[in-house]
Amino acid sequence: MSSADNVMDKLVSLAKRRGFVFQSSEIYGGLGSVWDYGPLGVELKKNIKERWWRSMVHAREDIEGLDAAILMHPKVWEASGHIAGFTDPLVDCKHCKNRFRADDPRIKGTPGQPDAQCPVCGTKGSLTAPRQFNLMFKTFMGPVEEQAAVIFLRPETAQGIYVNYLNVLQSSRQKIPFGIAQIGKAFRNEITPGNFTFRTREFEQMEMQFFVKPGTDGEWFERWRDERMRWLVELGIRPEKLRFHQHTPQELAHYAKEAYDIEYEFPFGWHEFEGIHNRSDFDLSRHQQFSGKKLDYLDAGTNERYLPYVIETSAGADRTALVVLCDAYAEEEVAGEKRVVLRFQPSLAPLKAAVFPLVNKDGMPELARRLYDGLRRHFNVFYDDGGSIGRRYRRQDEAGTPFGITVDGQSTQDQTVTVRDRDTLKQDRVAADRLVDYLVQKLAG
Ligand code: ATP
Questions:
Q1: For a Cys staple, 288 with which of 203, 231, 295, 312, CB 3.0–4.6 Å?
Q2: CA dihedral 185, 187, 192, 196 (to 10 degrees)
Q3: What is the pLDDT of residues 376-415, one digit of tens each?
Q4: What pTM was estimated for this model as a whole?
Q5: In which element (H, E) is residue 311 found?
Q6: Is-contact 87 135, C-beta < 8 A?
Q7: Mind listing the pLDDT tens digit for each residue in 148-158?
């Protein structure tokens, strides 16, 4: 087993044990490449999405929010190019019936030729030549399963933004340049095994489309590329684990004029988890053409009419959560004992603090409960009175909880508690009635 497998195995097992991520429908043997977020995972992902929303929508005058439906008019996907072009070359094994991406590194030989070997059943010559396979999930709208009613689960959230661009522009009284941001589910019938939540069939995207005047697109593209990297570093992700990858002309998607991926060095290598794309006027011009509705913009100042260019920042909420998890994971020795710790930035941590009575007597549980009830009104906190204090600290280290609050013998005398810092392991003595202020200050820093 390679060390990458080893780290991922440990992370997957921690994620399950502590309630971050579970396999979908596990009691039925699981559903491939679909995952559920448990009590800690849902908080982590929600914190990431909220951070994104705050910085993209609330902190800016020039971006509006949107929540478009997953189901859209089927013509949208003709206009976007997804019906014709959203395909991966796939090969089938005629023997075991498994299906693989044609570029699956586990395939030995050339698919379609007698030398090719199936990576699952090992049969030689059983792999078909690559065939294009559309990644969109199809379903039927209405009671009759007929061709006319075929619709798709959206494979990206961006199209919901383009088709609402005029609605948002007019209702919000924005002027170009301005953007529309959206967080929502997307679905792709991906054919690649492994790597936990990295590539899933149902996932969430955090996308922002910024509409600009043609000619200013190059400058806005650079601004957004730098801004997105800055945001990720602010999230506490180690800068040396982040890098840009500029798309070569061969890699550029059909809609893109210029594109950068932001990559993270996962235990299984460098991979993209966010893309910044200059989509030119491809999408708006296609929707204009397919819908027959004019989508151009009239600049009231100059009387110019033009179809805006779009700069897109497209991040996966699940992939960003995986980046945050991988980046936070550490094993270390503390006082001769091994500990596993998730060093989340406090603002992203699912639980902000845990409250412990040192022992379950002498008035400590009563005071601890009272503090816990008070803190709960402000933060997501946890109460734990089971096992030795060392074990309770360790359990919270594994959950990434930044502060451990212990009510001890002194607390019942002078109404102070100790607050242990997850990373420095230092303990501060804090007055119980100042705890909320103390945590607010620490969580902001
Ligand atoms: P990949 O090359 O990994 O399939 P992509 O280039 O198709 O990704 P985009 O279409 O640009 O990805 O989507 C933007 C973001 O959405 C990605 O950077 C990623 O974070 C997320 N994303 C895309 N597909 C998936 C998936 N199957 N599972 C989880 N996240 C995804």
A1: 295
A2: 20
A3: 999 999 999 999 999 999 999 999 999 999 999 999 999 9
A4: 0.92
A5: strand 309-316
A6: yes
A7: 688 999 999 99
